[in-house]
Write a structure and sequence with these properties.
347 residues; 10% strand; alpha/beta; homodimer; globular
């Protein structure tokens, strides 16, 4: 259904090899980004996506230059299972934003897309109107073999896009995995798309995602599905009412929309603005951003410290054996952990 | 309202000093545990709670001896905000289990109780019937300055209790913090107690806890609250129906009970048994336990590796400064993380 889920590996089978051959000039990239030059922005994103050590150092330098220009966009997360109509909705919403004078970037997080980056063609085809528009920038999920890596690259891409003057960043995710937590931790407002009627389609949504949503959209509320969509909206509004309130004081909104027919898109934007106004008014907007920055520092540290640990020769040989014993209830997880830590500290 | 929340610091102000003076004989403890001797079991728990290095080594030895005798209980988590009636419910349920021939241990996780362990008196007073019964063992939350430490000690206490022949372990938590995630990761079935009517009382429940529950109990369904409790039950049953299904195939049950009047306690036990039968039938019971063991290994490793990292002199002096810059959006969280990791690796 989603072309994104069937990446065409013929497009770019040797991304890293290609990246290494590209010459990156930091000054040109930086000059281009400041001017909002899409070619230089794309090249800069390719640089930060590179796993080459020399490129990583250049990325750091570029990102540090960009820092003062970041933080001025509204970052919107959009999730929902394949088939719920995310791309059509984003195309309708994005087009409306552009008409209202916004410059929009659409990013995707989909760790399953892996190294092929095959989704370039898929995404661009699915968002024809936006793909051709000078005020829109569409970039598919970065390559990466771990969610942590993909998330980092996406968060850095947000920074580059903000430095290049994009005022709205839409981050799309597929709604079936851990990637929602990553997206939720990098956006200001998190939106969940549902289908009218619920039922089987819902089963693709991971537990816990419902509670992350700030705005719930029942999509495809058009033609003969309007009544069903309204009933679904009522059910979710009742259910969400029973959940504990958000600490920022926002009451989760449930709305019906149709991405295909452009119904409810303006009302959605009004809710986004109402949300931003409220969270900026009680300062939870900046508090959340500061918390998110701390979160990514800690996440990144934990991951890297753990990698350092797992690369330790003694740990690397002992860990799988001990883990097996732990899973079989032969030794306590804490004893195994203490044992491994002692080896690590002795190095 | 809850005596547990106002620890009486006069009871045991110098726990660690006391622990150091106690002489622990592993052979006596092990012999006592095998016989189900409550005095030796209590002493063994005091040993594992000690932060003294020598005691920690003895704890490891004792726990390894216990390992083959662990895993045979049913572990039940019970959460809910203060005032919902957890202790009264546990007293009613525990008494019924004892009549049915079970041997029960009641443990508490409450990281806020800290070092005073002042809750001993509070808990025992609140559960008069159980406290005096030879088939019941009540132990308050272990002392500890971090949730990780408290959780580890509680999980090790479960192992000691199982080795001592307790067939049901009830783990109570206060429903207002991160401790639910810890409890959820050490029990077979997780139960949430609510008050009739919801409203303000609900606001103490952290977001995300609802989705962890396997059984939701509307407590205090007695006298003039019966109708309101039944309405609350219906509302939650409808709301939970909209959440994605659990991977173990279990449909979350919502029931009305009265701990005070002993209403619905037998029906609750029937649901516990139905749950255990289902998850043992489709093997998700053992799969979950294996996952939990892995989870604790990884949690414990992450925590200990991170501590090793934070104790590194250069990291210790640089980390607070970089974190401050990250929160102020002056440097990227990833740049800060890379910088810290480079220092750490150089040692």
């Amino acid at each position: 259904m989603d072309q994104k889920n069937t990446p065409d590996r013929s497009i770019n089978p040797n991304l890293n090899k290609l990246q290494r051959k590209v010459h990156f000039d930091i000054d040109s990239l930086w000059a281009g980004i400041q001017k909002g030059d899409v070619v230089q922005l794309s090249k800069a994103i390719t640089l930060i996506e590179s796993t080459h050590a020399k490129h990583q150092e250049l990325s750091r330098q570029l990102l540090e230059r960009c820092m003062p220009l970041t933080g001025n966009s509204i970052r919107i997360g959009i999730t929902g299972t394949p088939g719920v109509g995310k791309s059509t909705f984003i195309e309708a919403y994005g087009s409306q934003l552009i008409e209202a004078g916004e410059k929009i970037a659409v990013l995707t997080i989909d760790p399953s897309s892996q190294i092929s980056k095959g989704s370039i063609l898929g995404d661009k085809t699915r968002m024809e109107k936006l793909a051709g528009h000078p005020m829109a920038f569409i970039r598919p999920s970065p390559a990466g073999d771990s969610l942590g890596g993909v998330a980092r690259k996406t968060r850095e891409t947000i920074m580059l896009c903000e430095a290049a003057g994009y005022s709205r960043i839409l981050i799309e995710t597929v709604g079936v995995g851990q990637s929602e937590i990553a997206v939720h931790s990098m956006v200001d407002v998190f939106c969940l798309l549902l289908l009218p009627g619920g039922g089987d389609e819902l089963q693709g949504i991971k537990r816990g995602i419902m509670e992350m949503a700030d705005i719930v959209l029942v999509n495809k509320a058009d033609e003969d599905r309007i009544k069903m969509a309204q009933a679904t909206k009522r059910d979710y509004a009742n259910a969400l009412h029973l959940l504990p309130p958000k600490s920022n004081g926002w009451t989760v909104q449930v709305m019906t929309v149709s991405g295909l027919q452009g119904i409810g898109i303006q009302a959605f934007e009004s809710q986004i603005q109402a949300y931003i106004e409220q969270v900026k008014g009680n300062d939870s907007f900046h508090k959340k951003r500061a918390e998110q920055a701390s979160y990514w520092l800690e996440e990144s540290l934990q991951q890297q410290v753990l990698n350092t640990f797992l690369e330790h020769p003694e740990v690397a040989s002992l860990y799988p054996k001990l883990k097996e014993q732990v899973v079989r209830n032969q030794i306590s997880p804490f004893t195994a952990s203490d044992e491994l830590i002692q080896r690590f500290k002795k190095k």
